[in-house]
Give the backbone structure.
Amino acid sequence: MRAASKRLDVPPDDRRSRAEEILRDLGAQPRLTVYLGYSPGGGKSHRLLTEARALRDNGARVALGWIETKGRADLEALAEGLVRVAPRSARVGESTFLDFDLDAALASDAQVFVLDELAHTNLAGGKHVKRWEDALALRAAGRSVLGAFNVQHMENMAHAAEAIIGFPIREIIPTSFLRVADQVVAVDVSPEQVEARLHAGLIVRPEDVERALQGPIRPQTLRALRAMLLRTIDDVARARGEAAQTPVAVAFVPRDLDVAGVVAHVAAFADAMNLALEIVPLEHGALGVLE
């Protein structure tokens, strides 16, 4: 398995080399590449479409199984000209919705499929409950997949992420999914870049910007979720034998403080990020040199 990568901005020459590398691999075995982000507007869809175009330009038969362009002109431009798998429709109450059609994808001659929003729960009538299961089915059928989702949907991160974001996370992907991926790539941008995209109207409507800044795209929320993303990538690398040390979180606790709640809070983050936790008692005033 290939090492996990934290690289986001890939020069054109490097992207072409990567596309050629994937094409060579296509001749030997199908691959599942997962682009992992941490926030809306973090660049996952842009990365998926850019990689898809690079593969197509190098001769691969690429199809968009499902992509969320969110009405953005830049994403629509990247998607233009790429073959799309016709979606299936499903009735929910009195309304009709569209969803990824696995059967149509398997009936096509595409070698590589783009599947955005892998945490999505499929509408009634699909072969699988979740879209990430569709991705595994495509690979099992000999097709490669470029997929994406945000780290807060990981089974081992969701509980801590809920506390950070302030609302339930209902779409869950098992931790084992990343372990069976052939490559996991962190789509890592700074919180400041996400905020700039928010203010530019690339994430929500202009009238919803202030609400977003007070909710899921608060600066402190972005920083915490980004830490989860990088921790997850490190965990993937460690599972593949690329890291020998176990990171440790240290909580310094004054002896004269009732810290049961604080320790429980720190323990939840340590568990979510797969950190060993050490509790260090301090005498009153011991942190004075750090103030």
Observations:
- The radius of gyration is 21 Å.
- DSSP finds eleven helices and ten strands in the chain.
- Residues 1-10, 284-291 have pLDDT under 50 and may be disordered.
